[in-house]
Amino acid sequence: YVRIDRRRKIPATVLLRCLPSAEDEKKWQSDPRKPTIRGMDDTEILGVFYKRIPLKFDGNMWIGQTNAFDGLDKYRLNYDLINPRDKKTLASKGDRMNAKRLKRVVDASKEFGIMPDAMIGEYLFDPILDAEGNVVYRAGTEITPDVMADLEKMNVGEISLIAIDNTTITAHMR
User: Fold this and answer.
1) Which end of the chain is more exposed for a tag (fewer CB within 10 A), N or C?
2) Which positions ≥6 away from 167 have C-beta within 8 Å?
3) 100 — phi, psi (to 5°)?
4) Please, which residues have CB within 8 angstroms of residue 83's CB and are 6 or more apart in sequence?
5) pTM tops 0.85
6) Is residue 155 left, alpha or beta, with left meaning phi > 0 and alpha meaning psi from -120 to 50?
7) CA nearest 143: which of 122, 173, 170?
8) In the predicted model, is pLDDT for residue 137 greater than 90?
């Protein structure tokens, strides 16, 4: 929360939505006479505080690049990382992704897989849009079995997770 004039408490996201986005800054640099400020959206706010883990669906599991864990030194996994080629476990649920373990995972495979049912309880980084462009799930939505079923029905091929482990990185800003 943010306090305005020592009396009112408002959510910090309201203040952050009033700040100019990177796109607004570029517009301002090019022509300062047209100050149409849109403000930060949910994805930009999340990008300031959290790291993104991009994933693609291959029909069986969600596949990501192991370099997505760079900079997450004390990140504790909420799911098993599986080698998509031989289906062996690269790192188990609860393991810390320290530099030594990350090097071992990267040496074993450049890609990792996550089973769809293991993603229950994670959070979406980007909003999910339907065919008409309407927002179905906002950024920061928790993945539940219903959300996962809707993603399968809508044939969503790419999503991004918020790197939250609820130990060192919590879900306080989503």
Assistant:
1) N
2) 74, 76
3) -65, -45
4) 89, 90, 108, 109, 111, 112, 113
5) no
6) left
7) 122
8) yes
What confidence score (pLDDT) does residue 34 get? 66
In this structure, which amino acid lies at residue 27?
Answer: K
pLDDT of residue 20: 78
d(CA 124, CA 141): 5
Residue written as token pair 């952050």: 16
Q: What is the pLDDT of residues 65-102, one digit of tens each?
A: 988 888 877 888 999 999 999 999 999 999 888 888 88
Q: In the predicted model, what is the mean pLDDT of residues 32-39?
A: 70
Give the closest residue to 62 by CA, choosing from 143, 167, 146, 166.
Answer: 143
